[in-house]
Amino acid sequence: MSGSRVIPSSPISSRALPPPFDTGLATIITLPQPLRRRVLAMGSEAKNRIALGVGSTITLSPPSGELSDPEARQRLEEAVAHLRDDPATAPEVIAVDLHPDLFPSILGRRLAASWEIPVVAVQHHHAHGAAGLAEHALAAGLAVVFDGLGWGPDGRLWGAELLRIGPDGFSRLGTFAPVPLPGGDAAVREPRRQLVGRWVAAGIEPPPAWRESCGVSEPEAGIWAHQCRRGVLAPVSHAAGRLFDAFAAWLGVAPTTIAHEGEAAMRLEAEARRWTDNDCQRTVSFARREAEGLLEIDWSAAFRLPPPARKMPRGEAPAREAASARAEWAMAFHRAMAQAIGEMAAWGIARTGLTTVILSGGVFFNTVLCELVIPELASRGGSPLFHRQVATGDAGIALGQAWIAGGNP
Predict the structure, then answer these.
(1) Is residue 168 part of a domain?
(2) How many domains, in total, are found in the chain?
(3) pLDDT tens digits along 229-250
(4) pTM score > 0.90 for this model?
(5) In CATH, what number is assigned to the domain containing residue 76?
(6) Orientation angle between helical segments 316-352 and 367-379, nearest 10 degrees
(7) Which candidate among 71, 92, 221, 292 keeps its CA 20 to 30 Å from the CA of 228?
(8) Which of helix, strand or coil describes residue 291?
(9) Do 302 and 333 belong to one domain?
(10) Cα separation of 200 and 204, whole Å?
(11) In a domain, 162, yes or no
């Protein structure tokens, strides 16, 4: 399967797009049917919000903050300490993320042991999609969940998932081909490491000219490539967020070191915004394949192209032409991403008969992608739905956890 095609432009109402950020207020979600048991959902490590599900409502707390901060951890512990005092709201079950080492998971298990109630571990992307279903009062649907990463049941780092979700749980229908992250967390902070991982996955060597322009020595690039080939401190990731990082590094717009979450993807989106022509001649390609009923999107072809020059040429006209080319490449990438989502959704629709497609995860803060994906899904028979009451990122995770562990109708 080849890369992007031109997606017809159509008027996009701002109401169709996800909220640009979390409001920071408590949020009450009303369900069409009551939960089967009272539930405390511990949420995510980043942008933590907890949720309490009682009867036909799930209430999300204001954000606790980033739980890498000891003060935020203390605020979270204080917030849940007295929930057992009122018999009318006392949790009967606690929901945690599947990843056992996250602070909310550790705290949730400790509370469950103290209160002598069961724990339900919920896969990260399942919770994302379930949050969308709960918001829209739906019992089942497809979910395309794109984010930085989340722990999968197979022990791998998921993050570009097509899921079928219903009262009986979830099944994984599609994903992106796995790619190594040399250095693990270091690769998340340094997108150029991720680019090396992409080149190794595509079967090519890091170009010398690129190394020189990025200040990466030959031994350094060689170590990263060796890590990828041997699987040494190079966990594999399926995540769409990591693909944005790598392509931003390929295009020369990613920082050497990430200063804040999503920085490289934001720069790539800003470049795409500069392309105002409906016609996009450049193509970012991908392939699709089926393996044991799972659709896999492989982006190797996108990284076999020689990377563009990283230094802007001298002279007004050459510089303007180079800037235009960079913007067109960025838009071509977003168009290809929208088409890949369309391919995944069409695959899910054909196999399940479900046409509702929840779009969730931090990648969908990207409004360029959202504007492109709406007509793409509509052309394939899908009905896209974004979050409306909670943020599309991890701040909405607790809602999905509560909906699942509380026994959604």
Answers:
(1) no
(2) 2
(3) 999 999 999 999 999 999 999 9
(4) yes
(5) 3.30.420.360
(6) 40
(7) 292
(8) strand
(9) yes
(10) 6
(11) no
